[in-house]
Every structure is written in structure tokens, then in C-alpha cells.
Amino acid sequence: MDNLKSPENEETSGLPSLLIRDAHIWTENHTIRGSILIDHGRIQKIARRIAERADEEILARRLVALPGLVDAHVHLRDMRLSYKEDFTTGTAAAAAGGFTTVLDMPNTLPPTDSVQRLRLKARRASQKILVNVGFHTAAVGDRWTAKAMGAAGAFSMKLYLPKPIAPLTVGDDRAVAEVLKAAKEASLPVTVHAEDAAQAKTTREIRTFKELVASRSGNAETSAVNRILRLQKKVDCQIHFCHLTLPSSVSAIGNSLSGRVSSEVTPHHTLLSKDSVEKLRWKAWMVPPLRPEQVKNSLFRKMASGNATIIATDHAPHTIKEKRQPPHKSPPGIPGLETAMPLMLTMVNKGKLSLRRLVSLLSTNPAKLFSLSSKGRLEKGAEGDMILVDMKKRGKIDPNKFFSKAHYSPFEGWKTQGAIHATIVNGSIVYRNEEITGKPGGGKVLRNGSGG
Q: How many CA atoms lie within 13 A of 56 on its CB side?
């Protein structure tokens, strides 16, 4: 990626200026009434009134301006998996959901397990993306490879405990410790799918999705979290735990004496229970699987009260034909980029989650966690990434309207209050009034260490 010509490296002088007038602008603790001027891709001024004119203007009365959302865990597919999703449809879904920056996972075909493949992926993405995109790479135990991937801009090394990307094996602690040491030397975080492989197996004997969920019990997560925390204490590297399903996992990470561990929860694990799997079957099948109702409720409370570090969607699209296969063949995963914000804004409107907490979970905290220093805030000098939200607009989750290729959702039919009116990336409007207005290639390919 060092020699790539991508939107990140191009001059921004040709970008049109944008003035957002009379919005309710989010500050650290509350909203203020005012206007925002963006020029050369960055916020130039925030004031009660701005006299300057701009190339484009939005009258934002009754709309709330929030910093652009950052999703640290998405699967944009593309390449040999383009039939499921590609960089354009995936980032269109991101824009529609209010996400101005997403970080893509490495379990693609081919997997992102080398510097060459990272560069290939970035080059392909640079021509197709509508929002800003960075990349995680597969975990490796070789320190020179880890350093090379860090130098090429990787945002983390992803460690899949239940099914590591070959040739990595994680059967013993020594192998995992080598990954953690390599990541530390490369100054890279390790993002972890925390399920114990020995306790998370599916077989052909499984005949129902209920049995499939039972095959991956919460004990698999508890065992893996405890194992990684124990090894992290010895190595002292940065660890981020993905898509946690148990409140006890969030607590264990929060109670860790290390300041270098963080936790992630998803909308589906905090809003849906395993009862949904019995009713919706393949539509509600993901890994880790959904948990019992009381566990789900407790996880939501942990998230809302400040224990979890971030929300991520784990957007994982598949074709409906694939999903409809028998349980042991049905690939786990659901699309989430277009449903996360409407669902969570509904929780805000119901008084179950504060807007301040939501902004932290979906913007400020993920930006800080992955060193995107110019994102996650509305301040002079910050990147011109923001969203305009209509807090009162009512709607209904309709997968047929998704920009993603995955036209299914366990949230289908859910009524919502709160919607994305516009998504602005690097000062350009890429989504507005339920339409994509940006062009493929308009987003930046991001590199870790560049500040975003």
C-alpha cells in the first residue's frame, strides 16, 4: 500500500465546501444550535452563525449533527466473495447506516494474510468505496511478517480462536503467546474472536438451528476470554475482544488490571435472544450465537451503563440461498450496517440508552481505540465526517430496501424511531434522503498510524 495512489494520498483542494446551517450540534455532553463549515475535507468553523457561503449548503433545522460513526468490525467480502457483497455495495450500506469509517476483517477469499494481499485488497477498494475503509489482517506468529503488515497499514491482527486462518494453529498457549508477542513488537492490537475451539464444534448430526446454537455454549466464550486475559497479562499487548455475548465477559475485561484490553458488543446480541433462532432459524444464525433472554437483557444493561467499550455491527452478508441450507451447512452471519443506528436510536428515544453513550459506543470510542485521531469528534480541524440524524422519524426495518446484497435480517418488521438523514464523508454528501449520492472511489483507504 506504500506506493498506492488512493484517495487518501490525493490533494483535497478540489473538494467542494459544505455548510450545514442551523443544526443541533453534538458536543461532548449535549447539543448546541449552530452551523458547521467544512472545506478541504475538514471542519473549518463551528459557530452559532456563519456568514460565509459554500459550494453546497444543507438547512438542518430539526436535525442533530453527530460525528460520523466508526464500525471496527465488518465483512465487506469482495474479490472471490463478491457475490455476497462487494466494496461498493458494502460501503453504500455503511453510508446508509451513518458509518463514515469501517474496518474490514481478513477472512475473505483470498484471506488477508500477507502484505501482498493487504495491498491488493486496498488497491481494489480504493476504486470502489464510498466511505473510508481500513483493514485488519490475519494473525501470524512470525514477528517479521507482523511488522511488515503493520508498516503496510493494518489496523490489527485478527485471531480466530475457533477456526484460525491457515497455517496458524492455536491449540496450545505457546502458539497464541507468539501471536501476541509478534503483535506487540509490530505495535498492532490483536482483535480476538473469543470462543474455545474445543467447545465450539458443529457436526452433520445437528438437525435444527436450536441444536446449532446449543453446540456453541457460553462456556466456550468464558474459557477463551479467560485464556486470552491470562496470556495478555504476561505479554502486555493490546487486545480487543470482538462480539461478546455474555455480561460476565464484559465484566472480566473491564475488571482487568491492564489498561490495554477492550470489549465489543453488537446490536443483535443486545437486542435479540436465542428465542429468535427458534422462530427465524437461518435469519438469526450467527457466531457467537444468540443467548437466553435474561443474558441478553443483562448485556444490554452493561452496554448502556458504560461497561462495554464499543458497539460494532459484525456486518456479515451471505446469499439467502446459502443461508437456507441445512443447519450444519448454513453460514453464520447477518447484515448489520443499515440496521444498527435506527435500532439504537429507537433505544435512545425509549429512554433505555443515552445519546451521549451511543455516540461514545459508535463513534468516539472506536475512533480512539484504533488511533483514528481525526475522527469521532466534531471540532475545528477534525475530518469532515459526520451524520445528520432525524430523531423523530419513524420507520420499519425492510431488508428489501437494503443497499447491501444481503436482503434479509432478523430485525425485519421492527418499528424504529430515529433515522439517518444524511451521511457526510470527508466533507462530501454520500447519502441523503434514502439515496446514495456519492460515487465509488470517493472514500479513503486508511492506514493505521496515519491518524485517519
A: 14
pLDDT digits (tens, 9 = 90+) for 80-115: 999 999 999 999 999 999 999 999 999 999 999 999
Considering its fold, how many domains does the chain have in total? Answer: 1
Tell whether 400 is covered by a domain.
Answer: no
Which of these is catalytic: 314, 385, 390, 398?
A: 314
Residue 15 maps to a domain = no
The pTM is what? 0.95
> Which distant-in-sequence residues (6+ apart) come within 8 Å of 351 by Cβ?
none
Does 46 reside within a domain? no
Per this entry, what is the length of the chain? Answer: 452
- Do residues 415 and 396 touch, judged by C-beta distance below 8 A? yes
What are 114-157's pLDDT values in tens digits?
999 999 999 999 999 999 999 999 999 999 999 999 999 999 99
Write the pLDDT tens digit of every residue in 30-67. 899 999 999 999 999 999 999 999 999 999 999 999 99
**Residue 407 covered by a domain:** no
Domain of residue 95: give its range: 68-377
Rounded Cα distance between 300 and 200, Å, is 24
Rounded to 10 deg, the angle between the 115-126 and 143-151 helix axes is: 20
Residue 314 is a catalytic residue: yes
**300 and 270 Cβ atoms separated by less than 8 Å:** yes
CATH of the domain at 110: 3.20.20.140
Q: Which of 12, 51, 52, 84 is CA-nearest to residue 335?
A: 84
